[in-house]
Amino acid sequence: MPDTLYDALRESHEVQRSLCRKLLRSKPGEGRQELFTALRIELAAHEAAEERYLYVPMLMNDAGLDSSRHALHEHHELDELVEDLRERAPGDRGWMNTMRKLSKKVHHHLKEEETKFFQVSGRLIGAGDKLKLGKQYRRDYQRMVNKLQAQ
After folding, report:
1. Which of 4, 28, 137, 138 is the most buried if burial means most Cβ atoms within 10 Å?
2. How many other C-beta atoms are found inside a 10 Å radius of the C-beta of residue 131?
3. End-to-end CA distance of the chain, in Å?
């Protein structure tokens, strides 16, 4: 079966869930910084490509406005938590509390996407476009990962 946009998005969602779990179980100095960097890059690359290939098509249809605006707002909230964590060392006091907040928001957002936003967009995006957008998402996602890793 061909790879759709939703297959690509779910794949990234699983990576995000896994990295959050690993970070919450980590101890300072045990690869926590590397795990956080991987999560930060994963979230940023995923958000950029998802906004371009899922949420922009949804924004173009009146029926997708509310869902896409809500999702974009949640992306912004995730970005703010990531920036808060970047400004501190992983061993600093309060870092893990903020990481817990981030993990909770990531899990909430992913569940909402998979149970609500995908259904809304599924009615708005044609079958052929789901395949085309999936390829475009994967290409842009990988470009963003490469760019972020090089920084």
Report:
1. 137
2. 15
3. 36
Taking the C-alpha atoms of residue 118 and residue 54, their distance in angstroms, rounded to an integer, is: 9
67: left (phi over 0), alpha (psi -120 to 50) or beta: alpha
Residue ranges in the chain assigned as alpha helix (H) = 5-25, 32-50, 56-59, 65-86, 95-112, 118-124, 127-150
The pair of three-digit structure tokens given for residue 75, joined into one six-digit string: 């992306």
> 121 with 101: CB under 8 angstroms?
no
Confirm if 54 and 116 have CB atoms less than 8 A apart.
no
For 10-64, what is each residue's pLDDT tens digit? 999 999 999 999 999 998 888 999 999 999 999 999 999 999 999 999 999 999 9
CA distance 51 to 49: 5
